[in-house]
Design goal:
Layout lengths: L10 H6 L3 E6 L3 H4 L10 E4 L3 H11 L5 E3 L16 E4 L2 E4 L2 H13 L5 E2 L12 H13 L6 E8 L5 H13 L4 E6 L10 H11 L3 E6 L2 H7 L4 E5 L24 E4 L4 E4 H7 L7 E2 L7 E2 L7 H23 L5 H25 L7 H6 L23
Parallel strand pairs: 1-2, 1-10, 2-3, 6-7, 7-8, 8-9, 9-10
Antiparallel strand pairs: 4-5, 11-12, 13-14
Helix pairs in contact: 5-6, 6-7, 8-11
Bound molecules: zinc ion.
């Protein structure tokens, strides 16, 4: 057997660094696999068959990066006494420290490159989330392992000005890298202060990964996030409110594709409306090979091809990001992508004679980048250095 991509010691940061993972349910994993670049790609597997699928993939491709997210945050709200838990065949199971350790070991036994904590949903600060958040990091800090990423599935409200400093403090206090999920009904980045808060968090926390997200992965990585995991289906592109019967991320019946020029996912039906009277945009990715983006129907084969196309476009964008130096050069590259997308929105509106609004999220990303958050001891009134 060849070398296995697996974490231990400081290796985990290297496994995460600048890596873009695709998050898919256990059924879609095989469709996506051929389009993952070995050096900077990988999979987050969801769904009940994730352990079996992970084992298969890692047996076939020992060097592939594959991890699991059990989705506990989609089912349960965390409490200070039970921040971690898991749905099993016997029903729901709260996890104490040794239970948690056992679950994390199980992920590694099934071939996961590193373990991911089954954290339950962390409500907003004003809804009593602060003690829950500190219970997650406190318990995780008691784990004697260096192969684990701590999942923080948070309400979008944690990214607002009033709460983001506390969130950053907890992320920095965590001994493990942290994967942040932002939960909202719809796109969390369309909520007030979230785009700015996320940038501040990424600038302030060097071991942060953005999880279960969309193109925000690129904004986060441009601003210092270690890595990201982008959802293959719409339901895996942001956190959802916990419900006991939530699944691992099902398929929408209608096809959705990433339109790279617009830095946005769109329903194919929308593209068909835009391009009803003019030649549609084509795509040169390895899946489309010059075919029109309007061609996808809701047939199974087309839904799969649409997913594969989106994955190729994500990695093509990511390859460009990966070629830049962290810091100003990377931010400059991202700003250029946003400026180009703005031009393409204008062009599309002019060509089609329709209204193509420039999305709120892209507008927010075109604003100036905020500074990193001050650390607690650097804030006025917290100076511990004594008189000079
Ligand atoms: Zn394509």
């Amino acid at each position: 057997m060849g070398p296995r991509a697996g974490a231990g010691g400081e290796e985990i940061d290297e496994l995460l660094r600048d890596r873009l993972l695709i998050m898919v349910n256990d059924q879609s994993a095989i469709d996506v696999l051929p389009y993952l670049p070995a050096r900077r790609g990988g999979l987050v597997l969801t769904g009940s068959a994730a352990p079996a699928r992970c084992r298969e993939i890692r047996n076939a491709l020992p060097e592939a990066v594959a991890v699991m997210d059990y989705g506990s945050h989609t089912r349960r709200v965390a409490t200070p006494d039970a921040p971690f838990g898991l749905k099993s065949e016997q029903g729901w199971r709260d996890l104490d420290l040794s239970g948690l350790d056992e679950i994390l070991n199980g992920q590694r036994v099934n071939g996961a490159s590193y373990a991911v904590t089954p954290t339950c949903f962390i409500p907003a600060d004003e809804a009593g989330g602060a003690p829950v958040l500190s219970a997650v990091t406190a318990q995780a800090n008691r784990l004697r392992r260096a192969d684990t990423v701590v999942l923080l599935p948070c309400s979008w409200r944690w990214l607002r000005r009033s709460s983001v400093s506390l969130l950053a403090e907890q992320v920095r206090a965590c001994r493990h890298p942290v994967a942040l999920i932002m939960q909202a009904d719809g796109d969390p980045l369309e909520r007030g202060q979230v785009a700015e808060g996320l940038r501040q968090l990424c600038r302030s926390c060097p071991r942060l990964v953005l999880w279960r997200t969309d193109l925000a992965a690129f904004d986060a990585m441009a601003h210092g996030a270690l890595g990201a995991a982008v959802g293959g289906s719409a339901v895996l592109r942001h956190g959802v409110a916990p419900r006991p019967d939530n699944g691992g991320g099902g398929h929408k019946a209608y096809p959705v594709v990433l339109v790279r020029r617009l830095l946005r996912y769109h329903r194919v039906a929308t593209l068909q409306d835009w391009f009803a009277h003019i030649a549609p945009w084509i795509c040169d990715c390895p899946v489309c090979r010059g075919a029109a983006l309007t061609r996808f129907t809701d047939r199974k084969a087309d839904t799969i091809a649409a997913l594969q196309h989106s994955v190729c476009e994500l990695y093509s964008l990511h390859e460009e990001l990966d070629a830049t130096l962290v810091g100003d050069e990377r931010i400059g590259w991202w700003r250029q992508q946003l400026a180009d997308a703005w031009e393409y929105h204008r062009l599309l509106a002019a060509q089609t004679g329709t209204e193509v609004s420039y999305p709120k999220v892209l507008q927010a990303w075109r604003r100036q980048s905020p500074m990193a958050l001050p650390r607690a001891q650097e804030q006025p009134g917290h100076d511990r250095s004594g008189p000079s």
